[in-house]
Write a structure and sequence with these properties.
Blueprint (H helix, E strand, L loop, with lengths): L3 E12 L2 E12 L3 E5 L6 H8 L7 E6 L6 H7 E4 L10 H11 L4 H14 L15 H13 L5 E5 L7 H17 L3 E5 L3 H7 L2 E6 L2 E7 H6 L4 H6 L4 E11 L2 E6 L2 E6 L7 E6 L5 E4 L11 E13 L2 E7 L3 E7 H7 L6 E6 L4 E5 L2
Parallel strand pairs: 3-7, 3-8, 5-6, 6-7
Antiparallel strand pairs: 1-2, 1-4, 8-9, 10-11, 10-13, 11-12, 13-19, 14-18, 15-16, 15-18, 16-17
């Protein structure tokens, strides 16, 4: 990666009076997987349709592969997979081979390429089956095979896992990761599930109201959201209103509900701020075990007001002058005897918090 494959500039699209895309610039690098996430109605699917030349924008430019702008040439370079599999009432082999037949590829090569991509996606045993008799996961694997058999430079995926159950989704994402690692293809992957984005993407672009509000490496977006909307979208459950009161040891001191919180970074900030802390960055110990947190910068005594069973984890809500949410392993929760009403110490390190301006 490093070289631009697709450059989008000054993109504007309206449906009537409503602006659905307003993107100043977006650069997608060759060979990367870019996940596009955002709330419903953010413009994610519209962006894919515009890239695929299925819609014409009010204004804007797309530059593919260093300058290609011819609509027909662009369409030949890409393939698209939708949320719901759109398969023909014929065999799996014929479904995968359809695009190659349209392009008049030789039969011998068609057979070779279909079997190759079917093997990569684990559907070789289905090639003779009628596509109407497939499960949801099998049908989506065939849809992906039909796209990838064309050897596209650019693969557009519009929420391809949305209709699948969790085990089927997990297995398909893992297999798709392996396939994409083997192929020379650039991918734009639209999803509203942050877990999918983390698993599959090199970078994440966050959309809201048709705009790109943040682009960065997956962990950067998850841990350093630029505003309250992004923080909520990526699962930052501790979103606190605060005010900068000073600096200490190279970091920033933020007051939240009368309590001081030390945050690494944020030296240029002043006044009102948002403080973001992911629940997995918050530690909890029982009231009599506070000495184990002595090294933590931010320690607050409080009471568990809610405790949720999350399978292997427990989600604890602690009232400590403000509300902190923490994820604790089920084993730790049982060993500490956590329950509603128990007094605990909640803590997080200064590097486990992120602060941005609220003004």
């Amino acid at each position: 990666m490093g070289a631009a494959y697709l450059q989008i500039a000054d993109l504007l699209q309206r449906y009537g009076d409503k602006v659905v895309s307003d993107i100043d610039e977006l650069v997608i690098e060759r060979g990367e997987v870019l996940a596009v996430i955002g709330p419903n109605g953010a413009g994610k699917s519209t962006l894919l349709k515009l890239i695929a030349q299925l819609e014409k924008p009010v204004s804007g430019t797309f530059s593919f592969n260093g300058g290609v702008r011819d609509e027909l040439d662009i369409r030949r370079r890409l393939a698209m997979v939708f949320q719901e599999p759109l398969l023909f009432s014929t065999t799996v082999f014929d479904n995968i081979a359809y695009g190659l037949k349209v392009r008049k590829v030789a039969k011998v090569e068609i057979a070779s390429r279909v079997r190759g991509v079917a093997g990569m996606l684990g559907v070789s045993h289905l090639l003779g089956r009628d596509a109407g008799n497939l499960s949801g996961g099998e049908a989506q694997r065939v849809s992906l095979a039909r796209a990838l058999v064309l050897k596209p430079e650019l693969l557009l995926l519009d929420e391809p896992m949305a209709s699948l159950d969790p085990p089927t989704k997990k297995a398909l994402i893992e297999d798709l990761q392996e396939v994409l690692d083997r192929l020379d293809v650039t991918v734009v992957y639209v999803t509203h599930q942050r877990t999918e984005a983390i698993m599959i993407a090199d970078r994440i672009a966050v959309m809201d109201e048709g705009r790109i509000v943040q682009v960065g490496a997956a962990q950067e977006v998850m841990n350093c959201p630029v505003n309250e909307m992004v923080a909520d979208l990526v699962g930052v459950e501790n979103i606190l209103k605060g005010r900068v009161t000073g600096a200490r040891d190279g970091g920033t001191v933020v007051e939240v509900e009368g309590k001081e919180i030390e945050v690494a970074g944020g030296e240029s900030l002043s006044g009102k701020v948002w403080l973001f802390v992911r629940p997995e960055n918050v530690s909890i110990v029982a009231d009599d075990g506070a000495e184990h947190q002595a090294g933590m910068r931010n320690r607050f005594e409080g009471e568990i007001t809610k405790l949720y069973d999350m399978g292997p984890f427990s989600r604890a809500v602690v009232e400590c002058g403000f509300v902190l949410v923490a994820l604790v392993t089920k084993r730790s929760a049982n060993e500490m005897g956590l329950r509603v009403g128990v007094r605990v110490w909640a803590s997080f390190d200064s590097t486990g918090a992120h602060v941005v301006s609220r003004e």
